[in-house]
User: Which sequence fits this backbone?
C-alpha cells in the first residue's frame, strides 16, 4: 500500500526556537514514518515580504536545513529541498495565477492581517498578494493529499483548495488533487515575557541556544502573576512555566510542582531550575547533531541535489499535463 503524500514548507526567516519544534517540527518528524513526506525551504516566499533585504535568505536557508536535520528530519525518509531549486513551481504559479480572481487574494484574512502587522514594511507588492497562489503551486505540483500546518495557515490552504477546484472545473479534468490541511495541535507555549513566542520579540529559546543562556532565560520567565511571594499559593494552570513542564518534565516532577505550587511549598526558582535542567537535556543532543551536520555539509545545494532532482522530475510530469490542458 502506498503512503499518502505530505508537503509542507517553512520560510527561512531566522533561527528556529522551541516553539517551532513543538508547534510544527515534532509533527513533521512523527509523520516521516507513516507518510511520503516532502519538506522544503520556502525561499521565494521569504522574498515576498523581505524583497528589500534579501541578503540573509541564503544563509537562513542553510541554517533552517541544519535546524531540521538536528531535530530529526531525516533525508533518508523525507525529501528535503529548496523551493527555488524547482523552477516548475514558478511556471505552475504563473499558470494558476490565470484562474485566480484577485478578489479572493485581497479577501484572504492573512493578507489583511500581515499587511497591518508589518506596517513598517512596504508589502504592497504583487508577489505578496500572490503568496497563496505560490503556496498552491508548492503543494499541488507534487499531488500532495495533506499539508501539515498551524492554524495560521488554514486560510491559505482554503484558498488553495478553491483555486484547485476552479482549475479542475474550468478544464473539466481532475488534474490536481485537492490538498487538505493536517492541523498541528499546537501545545500552548508562550514566550519568556508571556507574549507570543517570536524572534522579533526576542523572547524565545532557540534550538541552537547557547546552553549557558538557558538558566538565566528561564529565571526571567513570567509566572502566575498572582504569585508574588513564595508564601502565595500559585496556579500552574495559568503559569507559562508549567506549560513547558507539561512537555518536558516527568509525571512525578509535575505532581511535585502542582502540589508545591498550589500549597506554596516550593518557590518559583526551584520550579524553574527543574525546567532548566530538562531544557538543557533536550537541547544538548540537538546542538550536538547540528555541529556534526555543520561540519559535514558545506554546500547545501550539493547536499540536497538528489532530492532536488527527484522533485524536479515529479514536478515536470505534472506541469506537462497542465500545459496540455491549457494548450501551451
Ligand atoms: N506559508 C508557510 C508559512 O509561512 C510556508 C509555506 C510556503 C508552506 N509554502 C507552503 C506551508 C506550502 C505549507 C505548504 O509558514
Ligand atoms: Fe509557575 Fe512553577 Fe512558580 Fe507555580 S511554582 S507559579 S508553576 S513557576
Assistant:
Amino acid at each position: 500500500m502506498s503512503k499518502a503524500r505530505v508537503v509542507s514548507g517553512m520560510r527561512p526567516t531566522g533561527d528556529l526556537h522551541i516553539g517551532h519544534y513543538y508547534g510544527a517540527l515534532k509533527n513533521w518528524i512523527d509523520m516521516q514514518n507513516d507518510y511520503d513526506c516532502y519538506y522544503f525551504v520556502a525561499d521565494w516566499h521569504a522574498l515576498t515580504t523581505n524583497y528589500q533585504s534579501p541578503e540573509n535568505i541564503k544563509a537562513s536557508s542553510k541554517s533552517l536545513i541544519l535546524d531540521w536535520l538536528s531535530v530529526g528530519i531525516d533525508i533518508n525518509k523525507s525529501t528535503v529541498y529548496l523551493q527555488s531549486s524547482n523552477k516548475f513551481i514558478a511556471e505552475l504559479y504563473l499558470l494558476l495565477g490565470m484562474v485566480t480572481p484577485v478578489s479572493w487574494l485581497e479577501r484572504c484574512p492573512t493578507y489583511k492581517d500581515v499587511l497591518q502587522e508589518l506596517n513598517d514594511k512596504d508589502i504592497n507588492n504583487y508577489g505578496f498578494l500572490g503568496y497563496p497562489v505560490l503556496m498552491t503551486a508548492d503543494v499541488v505540483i507534487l499531488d500532495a493529499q495533506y499539508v501539515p500546518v498551524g492554524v495560521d495557515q488554514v486560510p491559505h490552504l482554503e484558498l488553495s483548495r478553491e483555486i484547485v477546484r476552479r482549475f479542475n472545473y474550468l478544464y473539466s479534468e481532475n488534474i490536481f488533487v485537492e490538498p487538505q490541511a493536517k492541523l498541528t495541535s499546537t501545545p500552548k507555549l508562550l514566550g519568556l515575557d508571556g507574549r507570543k513566542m517570536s524572534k522579533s520579540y526576542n523572547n524565545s529559546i532557540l534550538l541552537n541556544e547557547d546552553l549557558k543562556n538557558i538558566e538565566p532565560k528561564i529565571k526571567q520567565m513570567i509566572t502566575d502573576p498572582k504569585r508574588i511571594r513564595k508564601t502565595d499559593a500559585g496556579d500552574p494552570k495559568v503559569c507559562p512555566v508549567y506549560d513547558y513542564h507539561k512537555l518536558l518534565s516527568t509525571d512525578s516532577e509535575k505532581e511535585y510542582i502542582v502540589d508545591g505550587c498550589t500549597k506554596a511549598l516550593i518557590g518559583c526558582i526551584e520550579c524553574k531550575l527543574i525546567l532548566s535542567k530538562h531544557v538543557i537535556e533536550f537541547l544538548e543532543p540537538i546542538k550536538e547533531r547540528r555541529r556534526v551536520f555543520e561540519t559535514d555539509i558545506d554546500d547545501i545545494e550539493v547536499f540536497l541535489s538528489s532530492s532536488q532532482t527527484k522533485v524536479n522530475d515529479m514536478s515536470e510530469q505534472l506541469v506537462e499535463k497542465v500545459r496540455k490542458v491549457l494548450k501551451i
